[in-house]
Design brief:
7 helices, alpha+beta, globular
Length: 264
C-alpha cells in the first residue's frame, strides 16, 4: 500500500487552518501528522479538512499548548497515546493503518533556553521524555512502524547552520543528541530523511527572531521521519518544503515528507 506521509509542527492548527488547507491542496499527502496544535480535540477545525478528503483523524489535545493530530485520507484507527515521563502533556498519539502499519506522532519538549536540568526544569523534562521513549521502544521493539514529529533535536553537524556555535544551544547539545541516538538505537529506527538525503545541510526550522530567515538561513533540522528497520527500505522521495516557511503568517517549521511503498 503506497502512501505519502507529511509531518509539520503547525504552531496552532486553528490559527493556521488556512495553511494546512493549502498544504493539503497543493501536496495532497495521504497522511498529515501535526504537532503543537494548541487546541482541544473537539475544536480542531475538521470541516475543511474533511471536504478535501481527509475524513479520518486521531488526536490528543489540550487548550493552548502541545497537541498532536494525524489526518488521513486512508482509513486509520486510534492506536493509543503515551504520556511519556508522566508530564501530563498531549505529546503523542498513534494511528494504525489497515495493513497494520503503526504511525507514532511525537512532539518532544523543546527544553527551554538553558541546557542544564539543575536550573531549568524544562530541560530536565526533555531528557526524561527521551529516556521514557528509549525505554518504551527497548521494551517493545517496533515492527512495521513509522515515527514522525517535531523531536526538537538536530542530531548531525550538518543539521544546523553552525555546529560549533550551537553545541551549547538547546536542540544541538551533546547530551540531547546522545539521548535521541539512544531512542533511535532502542527501536532500531532508520532516519528516513537522511537515508534519502545523506549529505549536505538540511533544515526544517528557522527562528521567528530572524528578520530575514531565508537570507540568514540559520536553520536546524528538528522535524524527523523514522521507520522501523523492517520497512525502512520502502521509504523514498524525502523532501523538506522550505518554501512553506515563507507563507503568510507561517509556522516556524516547514513540512517534511516521505513516500512509503509498502506491501502486505
Amino acid at each position: 500500500m503506497p502512501f505519502t506521509l507529511a509531518t509539520w509542527n503547525i504552531n496552532s492548527v486553528r490559527l493556521r487552518e488556512g495553511l494546512v488547507l493549502r498544504l493539503l491542496e497543493e501536496e495532497q499527502p495521504d497522511i498529515l501528522c501535526l504537532q503543537e496544535c494548541k487546541s482541544p480535540v473537539e475544536k480542531i477545525p475538521l470541516e475543511g479538512f474533511q471536504a478535501l478528503g481527509y475524513r479520518h483523524m486521531v488526536a490528543r489535545g489540550q487548550k493552548g499548548y502541545n497537541g498532536v493530530a494525524i489526518l488521513s485520507r486512508l482509513p486509520i484507527e486510534d492506536a493509543g497515546a503515551m504520556d511519556f515521563a508522566d508530564l501530563g502533556h498531549a505529546r503523542h498519539v498513534a494511528a494504525r493503518l489497515a495493513d497494520g502499519t503503526v504511525i507514532h506522532n511525537c512532539y518532544v519538549p523543546a527544553g527551554g533556553d538553558v541546557p542544564d536540568r539543575a536550573v531549568n526544569e524544562k530541560f530536565g523534562q526533555k531528557l526524561d521524555y527521551l529516556v521514557a521513549l528509549r525505554d518504551h521502544f527497548h521494551a517493545e521493539r517496533p515492527k512495521r512502524a513509522i515515527l514522525v514529529g517535531d523531536l526538537n533535536i538536530a542530531p548531525r553537524e550538518d543539521d544546523v547552520w553552525n555546529h560549533r556555535q550551537l553545541l551549547k544551544i538547546v536542540s544541538h547539545t551533546p547530551v540531547e543528541v546522545e539521548h535521541l541516538g539512544a531512542v533511535q538505537e532502542a527501536g532500531g529506527w532508520v532516519d528516513v530523511t537522511r537515508a534519502d538525503i545523506p549529505e549536505g545541510r538540511l533544515y526544517s526550522w528557522w527562528s521567528y527572531r530572524s528578520p530575514d530567515w531565508d537570507a540568514a538561513d540559520k536553520g536546524r533540522r528538528l522535524d524527523h521521519i523514522w521507520a522501523s528497520a523492517d520497512i525502512a527500505g520502502a521509504a523514498h522521495g524525502s523532501r523538506i518544503l522550505r518554501a512553506v516557511r515563507g507563507w503568510e503568517q507561517p509556522s516556524d517549521h516547514a513540512p517534511v515528507l516521505a513516500r512509503f511503498d509498502l506491501t502486505l
